């Protein structure tokens, strides 16, 4: 499906109207006319909410922050026109972090299974499964990580998250997301953000799978670049938001709006499509981003740089403290060469990783596209034994064709019952990948000329392969 284009920028003040209704975005009201002059002067006051909107539309405000930051939608019928909400089954979507006992072990999941459409039709909402998380939507402090596995499009139903923002990372199959602001086609290797309170529906074109990071308290922003300077990481102009598109459609059988509220699902009925916004303006929008546009700051000499050099988006709990971020690493067109593999005894962040495509060099066999891993706070982790032995002596070469991502958080995340048991995708042999690690300790080792020459050759090799291609 060919869309009508996008507007570029991150956090910009946008305005858009469907080309079928020119002038639907209010421009102003006549405030004063000077009469009895050869050239009468007309002054306008720009208004968000005129007494009568063009085309007889309803003005509606959608805000993700203080009301001092207005964002306006102009729609055929207001969103308040619906029957009462009633509770509906949540399926495998949950905010209950106490279903099972805490598990500090390294966890790895085999690729999550996508149901066959011939066996059972599952749309985006029905295919949501919570893997892990922490915090509380009521206090607006915390996160949840979900996967979605679906095979059919949403028909006459949409989803609305009152709890927080959805950052969606497709892994298999493109998705067409219809929002109140317009349409976005999002493919694997792209990400998109649907912010709190925005209604959206998802069309799929076959068996589809991906990951979702939900944040309760803050909106995503671009990370501070610090010593990197003006150029690097994700550029604001590469983020795309949709242009206005509406449908004036009556649904006699009822249109279902599903609302996620305080971790539970509720549904209401209305007799018209919610995607009836003819025009809108503001800086609170859905948006998408192509990970190929990321300007990587890569590691080409020695040691292991912090994942922050790969941060695409971040959300802060307190100033200068990253609570949750999306890191994407490394990149197909870049070199990523380091002097040696390393393992860590743990760190103060939880790291949930997924693989979109390619082979992850740290665990080439077990970490597969469509699967995931979780290394909780202070849990030791790192390259497996094969990777350590191989890369300790290998001639270093650039790594290409990989697309992995990390959701990194300062929260200590709990794994759900679905994530540990019901999905039956936990790789219980994961710990064994480190068991062959052996001691290389030699108390009689002494610095020698041969050691020094060897190190110099190693760094010479690194330098030769450090050119960005």
TrEMBL record:
UniProt keyword terms in alphabetical order: Dioxygenase, Iron, Metal-binding, Oxidoreductase, Phenylalanine catabolism, Tyrosine catabolism
Gene Ontology molecular function, alphabetical: homogentisate 1,2-dioxygenase activity; metal ion binding
Protein name: Homogentisate 1,2-dioxygenase
This protein's encoding gene: LOC115061356
Binding positions (homogentisate): 360, 381
A single BP term in Gene Ontology: L-tyrosine catabolic process
Active site: 304 (proton acceptor)
Pathway(s) annotated for this protein in UniProt: Amino-acid degradation; L-phenylalanine degradation; acetoacetate and fumarate from L-phenylalanine: step 4/6
EC number, as in UniProt: 1.13.11.5
Binding residue positions for Fe cation: 351, 381
UniProt superkingdom: Eukaryota
Alphabetized PANTHER family for the sequence: HOMOGENTISATE 1,2-DIOXYGENASE
Residue ranges annotated for the Homogentisate 1,2-dioxygenase N-terminal domain, each copy included: 6-291
């Amino acid at each position: 499906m060919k869309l009508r284009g996008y507007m570029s920028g991150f956090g910009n003040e946008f305005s858009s109207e469907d080309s079928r209704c020119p002038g639907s975005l209010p421009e102003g009201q006549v405030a004063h006319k000077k009469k009895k002059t050869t050239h009468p002067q007309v002054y306008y006051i720009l208004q968000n909410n005129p007494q009568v909107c063009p085309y007889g539309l309803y003005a509606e405000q959608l805000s993700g922050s203080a009301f001092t930051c207005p964002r306006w939608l102009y729609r055929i019928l207001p969103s308040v026109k619906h029957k009462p909400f009633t509770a509906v089954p949540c399926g495998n979507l949950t905010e209950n972090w106490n279903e099972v006992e805490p598990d500090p072990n390294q966890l790895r999941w085999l690729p999550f299974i996508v149901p066959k459409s011939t066996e059972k039709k599952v749309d985006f909402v029905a295919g949501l499964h919570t893997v892990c998380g922490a915090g509380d939507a009521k206090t607006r402090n915390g996160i949840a990580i979900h996967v979605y596995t679906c095979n059919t499009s949403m028909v006459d139903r949409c989803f609305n998250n009152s709890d927080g923002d959805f950052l969606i990372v497709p892994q298999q199959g493109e998705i067409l997301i219809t929002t109140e602001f317009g349409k976005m086609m999002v493919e694997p290797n792209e990400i998109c953000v649907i912010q709190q309170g925005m209604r959206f529906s998802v069309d799929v074109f076959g068996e589809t799978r991906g990951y979702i990071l939900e944040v309760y308290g803050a909106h995503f922003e671009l990370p501070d670049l610090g010593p990197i300077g003006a150029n690097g990481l994700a550029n604001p102009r590469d983020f795309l938001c949709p242009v206005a598109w509406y449908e004036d459609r009556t649904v006699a059988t009822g249109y279902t709006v599903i609302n996620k509220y305080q971790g539970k699902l509720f549904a209401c009925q209305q007799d018209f499509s919610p995607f009836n916004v003819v025009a809108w303006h503001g800086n609170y929008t859905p948006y998408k981003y192509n990970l190929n546009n990321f300007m990587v700051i890569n590691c080409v000499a020695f040691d292991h740089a912090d994942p922050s050099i790969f941060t695409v988006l971040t959300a802060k709990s307190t100033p200068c403290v990253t609570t949750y971020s999306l890191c994407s690493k490394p990149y197909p067109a870049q070199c990523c060469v380091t002097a040696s593999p390393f393992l860590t005894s743990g760190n103060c962040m939880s790291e949930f990783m997924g693989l979109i495509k390619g082979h992850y060099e740290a665990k080439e066999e077990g970490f597969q596209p469509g699967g995931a891993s979780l290394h909780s706070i202070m849990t030791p982790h790192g390259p497996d034994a094969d990777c350590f032995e191989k890369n300790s002596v290998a001639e270093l070469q650039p790594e290409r064709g990989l697309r992995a991502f990390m959701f990194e958080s300062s929260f200590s995340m709990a794994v759900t019952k679905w994530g540990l048991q019901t999905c039956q995708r936990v790789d219980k042999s994961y710990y064994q990948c480190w068991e062959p690690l052996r001691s290389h300790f030699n108390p009689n080792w002494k610095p020698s000329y041969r050691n020094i020459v060897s190190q110099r050759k190693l760094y010479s090799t690194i330098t030769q392969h450090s050119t960005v291609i």
